[in-house]
Design a protein that fits this description.
The protein starts with 12 loop residues before the first strand and ends with a helix. A 9-stranded mixed beta sheet has the order 16-13-12-11-7-10-9-8-17. A 6-stranded parallel beta sheet has the order 3-2-1-4-5-6, with helices on both faces. A two-stranded antiparallel ribbon has the order 14-15. It is globular. With 345 residues, it is of the alpha/beta class.
Length: 345
């Protein structure tokens, strides 16, 4: 048991990695190339994938609990299946190891509560892998909203769709994917929703829902809409924010952000002298492109070295899981769910 976590200062961070699935391999690529961190240990239960540990110069472990106990780590990235996050993160907290837990933080609100409590009790920081917060287009959108480009946000619409990933078996699309968008909508609205409603469907997944349409109502009157599925043949990742002065449109994949100014409805242009049309002014906003996951690791290792609050901490991750669970309840019970009625804290 740790006697209180402290940042490591300027020395090179000793980092472990749990899980070599799709996200784990991306973490492996980026961590192996860093100068301010040394990837010293990798754990995965499949012996055939642990060859990656040898190429990275890291010690290989089949058992992640053994790695956490033996490897003398400053930090660990937990990129294993969602249902394994709770025991692994609790063990990391006991050993005083700062952690980046891939999104979602946990499979259920109760498990997320345990991790929030463990972080608070030990002082060990937990950063949650809501990587879209580090997308250059999202960062610029947040900056422009802070500058007041939209004095009032009317509606936020998010679409996150694509084909079914066979690797996801332990949770449905709401916990696995919609948690991204719950976090982003709360970030854009600068507040958390107070009630939700939803419809779900199960078409190709054997055990869980693979389609979600959700509505989120915010205290200010802003409304959010989630369109999330594992049924669309090609990936689509978009966000639209409509407000008093105009509309932002964001594409996560191309890292493109546009702004369309509200039209002057008092001066229409006539088509053939009859049908009025309003031509809005729309511009592409300049962005410096970058890899969001690399920026996320930058932020995490800054916390490991210097301390402070992670950009997306355990409480933020808990909230995303809590709202996702409420959306599932709303769909299951076919009613609007007030979030204060199911809040357990």
């Amino acid at each position: 048991m740790t006697d209180g976590w402290r940042p490591i200062g300027e020395r090179t961070a000793r980092v472990g990695l749990i899980g070599l699935g799709a996200m784990g391999r991306n973490h492996l690529r980026l961590l192996s190339a860093r100068q301010d961190a040394q990837l010293v240990a990798i754990a995965d239960p499949l012996p055939e994938v642990l060859d990656a540990a040898a190429s990275a110069g890291a010690q290989a472990y089949l058992e992640p609990m053994a790695m956490l106990a033996e490897a003398e780590l400053d930090a660990v990235v937990i990129a294993s299946p969602t249902t394994t996050h709770l025991p692994l993160a609790l063990a990391a907290a006991r050993h005083g190891i700062a952690m980046l837990v891939e999104k979602p933080l946990a499979a259920t609100p109760a498990e997320a509560d345990e991790l929030v409590a463990a972080s608070a009790a030990t002082g060990v920081p937990i950063q949650v892998g809501h990587v879209e917060r580090f997308n250059p287009a999202v960062l610029e959108l947040g900056r422009l909203l802070d500058q007041g480009w939209l004095s009032t946000v009317y509606a936020i619409t998010s679409r996150r769709a694509g084909p079914f990933p066979a690797r996801i078996r332990d949770v449905g699309v709401t916990i696995d994917l919609a948690t991204h968008d719950i976090d982003i909508l709360s970030f854009v609205a600068a507040e958390r929703p107070i009630r939700v409603s939803a419809e779900t469907a199960q078409r190709v997944h054997q055990d869980h829902e693979d389609l979600l349409f959700g509505l989120l109502s915010f205290p200010s009157g802003s409304v959010g809409m989630l369109d999330v599925d594992w049924l669309t043949p090609a990936k689509r990742r978009t966000l639209t924010v409509v407000g008093e002065e105009g509309m932002f449109e964001l594409d996560y994949l191309s890292q493109r952000l546009t702004f369309t100014r509200s039209t002057d409805t008092t001066n229409p242009r006539l088509i053939g002298g009859y049908a009025p049309t309003f031509e809005p002014e729309s511009v592409d906003l300049p962005l410096a492109s970058g890899e969001p996951l690399a920026a996320e690791l930058d932020a995490f290792l800054a916390v490991v070295r210097e301390g402070g609050r992670p950009v997306v901490n355990a409480e933020d991750g808990r909230w995303a899981v809590f709202v996702a669970d409420a959306l599932l309840r709303a769909a299951r019970e076919r009613r609007t769910v007030e979030l204060d009625e199911v809040e357990v804290r």
